[in-house]
Amino acid sequence: xxxxxxxxxxxxxxxxGVVVVAMSLLVGTRHAHxxxxxxxxGFEGNLSQWVSNISGEIVLDPLNGANHVVHFTQRxxxxxxxxxxxxxxxxxxxxxxxxxxxxxxxxxxxxIGLSPTWWMFASDPYYAxxxxxxxxxxxxxxxxxxxQTSATIMLEDYVWPGSSLGNAYFDNITMTTVPExxxxxxxxxxxxxxxxxxxxxxxxxxxxxxxxxxxK
Length: 216
Fold this sequence. Notes:
Helix content: 25-40%
Mean pLDDT: 79
CATH topology of the largest domain: Jelly Rolls
Number of helices: 3
Number of strands: 13
Largest sheet: 5 strands, antiparallel
């Protein structure tokens, strides 16, 4: 009987281990390959993905002449460049990511966010927003959000008196969504429950006890 119980326990540990590994792989695969890109702009062509534009223009990257970026030539408040409307699932997490280059702390204040009123980042500490650095180098930024059925990305370059215009640059603007991995987790949990049920039945049979009365 001990040998039967040992073999049963060994099989359980092996199968349970396989289920746990499978669960991890399923969840990991979901996150690694389930990211959906719903908007992507590298400014290597035109501004066809932007439906409203006041002064945004594509120029050469000041730090890399082989790359193109966008900057602004006018002082605008309330948004200068607006993307097309991007459909979203309000039940999942979305991420806005981008690269920003500010040449000097004395440059104008750049903003990026979602229309109509949600600015996500600013390049001036005067504003109580996550800050974009203006130090003459490119920096990457991202922010998660949820609860919206659609989004419009908006950018602007607002000039304060005495600040320089046109020295704020954006590139590689991307929006992605990552659905929650609920389905794989539920499947793996079901497999584990099945293994546990089989283990209990195996123990009862090995013990030579008729449990059918209690199962009714």
